[in-house]
Amino acid sequence: MTRPPRLLAALGTATALLLLLPPAGASAHRGHPKPPTPVVLADTLAAPFNLDISNGRVYLADGGLGVVGRLGRGGAVDPIATDQPGASGVARSRDGRRLAWTTTVTDPDTFENAESGLTISGPGSRMVHADTHAFEAARNPDGRYHYGVRNPSQCVADAFTAAGFPYDYMGGVDSHAYSVAAYDGAWVVADAGANALFSVSNSGRVRTLAVLPPQPLELTAEMVAALGLPSCVAGVTYSFEAVPTDVEVGRDGWLYVTTLPGGPESPVLGARGSVYKVNPHTGAVRRVATGFLGATNLALGKHGEIYVAELFAGQVSTVRHGKPVPYVSLPGVVAVESDWYGDLWAATLGNEDPPAPGTIVRITHGKVHHEATIRR
């Protein structure tokens, strides 16, 4: 496959390796002589794939526990909804009347996604479910995109087939509603299976907002040798799928999206995760940064900063001149969010070997004057 077998499974597996690696070095943030310090505020989680901070409360979606909740006193999680399979995204509406979260049911034997969608709660305990899987099956927005290699030679086709990679195909039907953001009285869902952003109304109506473009990569002789492929593959351009993992609304009115590159992420093929800007009115897509290793989430700062959770690099990075700059080392980081004061909050995945819980941390430069403003 050109993407991880399925995103949730791939992220969990990758963290087992990440926690065995030494922490990535982090440079000091501009204007601060020392790197910031992560302070652990919760350590009883499993897979907190997303955070949302609204009205002084920290909301989370834990796909390992199947729980959507909020951070309570002493690091406890106060459940809002339980038995939520594959919970991964969470967002609160700007007026505070609704909370939305994404879920995905995955077949444990085939890793195929059988169900996926967005649940919208409130007001008056009203629940609405938007079925993104059904929408994808009916519309398949990236079905017009070509992936793999155009007009491959027989040697190239045989090489990719033997390696288990499809070599020439169009976008298929797959939905994995991963992240969600509140926007303009409705919701935007980053679907990591459909390679698209969906707009979802409060009544559950789904429409395509934008499709993320293919990610072409020319395979060098060094890459081909490291992958154990025959020399005929060298020089071939392979178009990988873009896999959107998070969406945030910028102060400029654009949507900001992180993507995984849809193929193996390792030093062999290089760091190829990206950040895009998407015009929510036209669906136009513009890449603003690339070079991330496992871009699973992003946060937008008060002054235009872009922070990216790099899971496979074990760090949070900032964007400068279209490239990542290390901000703080945080092995297993999978989510990052900013609060009203400009501090960052992040979440890390739990791990079984070596044993380590999933956590929520606050990342500051020693400022504690606002700690009481986070409501418990």
UniProtKB/TrEMBL annotation:
<dbReference type="InterPro" id="IPR048031">
    <property type="entry name" value="ScyD/ScyE-like"/>
</dbReference>
<dbReference type="InterPro" id="IPR011042">
    <property type="entry name" value="6-blade_b-propeller_TolB-like"/>
</dbReference>
<protein>
    <submittedName>
        <fullName>ScyD/ScyE family protein</fullName>
    </submittedName>
</protein>
<feature type="signal peptide">
    <location>
        <begin position="1"/>
        <end position="28"/>
    </location>
</feature>
<keyword id="KW-0732">Signal</keyword>
